[in-house]
Design goal:
The chain is of the alpha+beta class and 256 residues long. The chain has two domains: 108 residues, Rossmann fold (3-Layer(aba) Sandwich); 133 residues, Probable inorganic polyphosphate/atp-NAD kinase, domain 2 (Tumour Suppressor Smad4, Sandwich). It has five helices and 17 strands. Strands 6-5-16-13-8-9 form a six-stranded antiparallel beta sheet, with no helix packed on it. The chain is elongated, with a radius of gyration of 20 Å. The N and C termini lie far apart (40 Å).
Amino acid sequence: MSDIPRIAFTASSGPDAQAGLALLRGMYPEVPEAEAEIVVALGGDGFMLEVLHRHLGSKLPIYGMNLGSVGFLMNEFRPVGLLERLSSAERAVIHPLRMRATCADGSRHGAIAINEVSLLRETRQAAKIRIWIDGQARMEELICDGVLVSSPAGSTAYNLSAHGPILPIDAALLALTPISAFRPRRWRGALLPHKAQVRFEVLEAAKRPVSAVADHAEVRDVIQVDVVEDRSISLSMLFDAGRNLNERILTEQFVD
């Protein structure tokens, strides 16, 4: 990377993000994303996921600045000194999850999830799901609102809301977390090796339909969902020095 990197700016449609985009474009030179060495993304965590999905496989580092709501994956928005912040930024490399879903009509669908793959009941009926790990049925029947597999990067998102564990970004682990489990009532999930092959088998699918969601992609009426970590895809995020993703994850575990 040169002393002054080639930067592309992108922003969500929110008014604050659009105002920030106009401000940065007036302060710094810009190139198209296809020619960039760094993409600066303005918005919230949802927009950061969109930008990461847009650059799957490119290894182009994304530096986010929070002009959205949560902003866990973002840096503070400060227009002044951006080049210095980029030059000293710390890189986090993450690997997404790959979902393969089979539906009741026999159709098959694939999707990539940076945060998590979740199975969710579609009706008032609780879902019944059998959980397989590496070809072995580890739970014959989970009665629940749903269940999810989270990457370390996604462990502070839906997984945390479902009372799942927070994982360090470089942990070779996945979090398997139930969503409002009815039986077994006290099961809180499991930590899995990152190489684990997870299969969800939907029981009584006609009576208790289930959808599968990989980040923003939803598949309805699934009967089987396979989830693995895809190490062939690497995604890079940049964080201000001293505020890297591991530090944020650690800090998150000591707040009320």
